[in-house]
Amino acid sequence: MKSIKITSIIIALIAIFTACKKENITKQTEPKDYITTNMKMNYYGKILEYTVKYSPSTDIRKVEGKDAKKKKKIVDSYPNSVTVFDTKNEVHFFRDKLDYYYYISTLNKNTLANRQIASNSGNLGYSRQNTDFWFYRDANTSNLIISDNINTMYTSAQTFMLRQPCNDGTNNSCPTYSMSLIGKRVNWVGGSNNDCISSIRLRNYQYNTFAGVVTITLFQDADYGGKAIAFYFPQYIYTYDQTVNHLSDYKINSLLKTWNDRTSSYECFYPWP
User: Fold this and answer.
1) What is the chain written as a DSSP string?
2) How many angstroms separate the first and last alpha carbons of the chain?
């Protein structure tokens, strides 16, 4: 009986020693070079706040803060969501690209009104718009791999069923009308270019005073699948180059992995009918 008690005591001491050792190892391996970024996510008018911690030496990333769990639940619920960075610390989150296209079209209300006035007066100058855009393998628009173009003279229109709020007391959005948007869809960037895009350059040619925007949406998977990130660029009355020099600055859904070397398909549109 005494030997059994001694054995039990020895086992207990070993367990305590092992637990302490594991705790010390955990403390020793915890990164000391975390870079902390406070983030805000606009989810259909609700602002969620959280903190992203990143360790360059270990590539460990953590998401913490009061709304971290809520944000993760939302992100995980929408596998085809679109994120738009208003700033590097503030993002808009959309459940899918149709919600995003509706949102971006609302930013062009003045453009829509001006275009209608021009159309009614017989002035079709608004149709003369042209956009060149280029994708690069490396940061800072180095090592060109894809060149493309859309314009209002020759690019065909694509039809979408756009959504707007259902007005049912919820945050739901409903398909309400179809809209033809001038633009281009590329469902596969090609084997040699897949997951290789690191920066973007865009050049707008605006031939009248009805300035608007052009939007480029990058998709994680072929056939416009997976997560997406969207950029919208102002159009000016003169030729103007705009760039996204580091896709590595943009996180997928502002969370963990970046958009560097993640693109498999893309769309580029003028977001007005």
Assistant:
1) -HHHHHHHHHHHHHHHHHHHHHHHHHHHHS-S-PEEEEEEEEETTEEEEEEEEEETTTTEEEEESTTHHHHHHHHHH-TT-EEEEEETTEEEEESSHHHHHHHHHHTTHHHHHHHHHHHHTT--GGG-EEEEEEEEEETTTEEEEEEEEEETTTPPEEEEEEEEE--SSSS-EEEEEEEEEEEEEES---TTTTT---EEEEEEEE-SS---EEEEEEEEEGGGEEEEEEEEEE--SS-EEEEE--GGGSBGGGTSSBSTT--SEEEEE-S--
2) 88
Q: Fill in the amino acid letter for 30.
A: E
- CATH superfamily, domain at 112-269: Crystallins (2.60.20.10)
Under 8 Å CB-to-CB from 202, ≥6 apart: which residues? Answer: 131, 132, 133, 134, 214, 216, 233, 241, 242, 243
Domain ranges across the chain: 35-93, 112-269
Q: What pLDDT, in 10s, does the model give residues 16-55?
A: 555 555 444 444 577 888 888 899 999 999 999 999 888 8
Residue type present at position 242: Q
Q: For residue range 130-153, list pLDDT tens digits in order.
A: 899 999 999 999 999 999 999 888
Q: pLDDT for 155-172, tens place per residue?
A: 988 887 777 777 777 767
